[in-house]
Design a protein that fits this description.
Aminopeptidase, alpha+beta, globular, GNAT_dom, 2 domains
Length: 209
């Protein structure tokens, strides 16, 4: 992501520490190579540490979601998944390698993910968290337990549902946004993309794709 995620950061309980964005960076997955990083990190933590079966961890939703990877320098150290529904987004599969837990990598990744969600116009997000981790998540981003929703179990853990209120982005994308902005790579809407460059090849710039 190219710009500082100042809107996404507002959804966190505490500002990202000084210097964290110089060390860590996070971006949406756009290539097979980055997706392989997602698979490797999740396998290392959810399958190896938590003994989650392969078919439960890779549940059929990965190719219809947006993934983020966070890097410590050039090394991938964490990932999360976002799925999109009418009126809300769903935060899933948030994970860091063991050596990164408690460090700013998580805040950087969440700030970037929340920035993308708010830029898409989302104001509400839900997540299903391991119930034992509620104290951790409640101190990480601005969230609340969803009222009147019972706890539930799957993959050998007890879960609770939470809601995250997202701030309004002043430049949220809308149906009447510039069409050339809408076709740029996910999360890179402010930088000209390859299709912007293709406009110079035609003498009829008013013709839509």
């Amino acid at each position: 992501m190219s710009a500082y995620p100042e809107i996404g950061e507002q959804a966190l309980c505490r500002p990202v520490p000084d210097g964290a964005f110089a060390r860590y960076s996070a971006r949406p997955v756009r290539t097979l190579d980055d997706f392989q990083k997602v698979v490797a990190i999740r396998a290392a933590v959810f399958m190896a540490e938590q003994d989650c079966p392969y078919e439960e961890e890779f549940d059929g939703n990965d190719f219809c979601a947006t993934h983020f990877v966070v890097f410590d320098g050039d090394s991938p150290v964490g990932t999360l998944r976002l799925r999109w529904f009418a009126g809300f987004a769903k935060l899933e599969r948030v994970v860091l390698l063991r050596g990164q837990r408690g460090r700013p990598a998580l805040q950087v990744m969440l700030a970037e993910a929340f920035e993308l969600a708010t830029r898409k116009g989302y104001r509400r997000m839900i997540a299903q968290i391991q119930a034992r981790l509620w104290p951790v998540w409640s101190r990480t981003f601005r969230c609340r337990l969803t009222a009147d929703r019972p706890r539930f179990w799957f993959s050998d853990f007890e879960y609770a549902e939470i809601e995250i209120d997202l701030p309004e982005h002043p430049r949220a994308l809308a149906p009447d946004s510039d069409p050339m902005v809408m076709i740029r790579p996910e999360g890179e809407w402010d930088a000209p993309g390859v299709l912007d460059a293709s406009v110079a090849r035609t003498d009829r710039p008013d013709v839509a794709a």
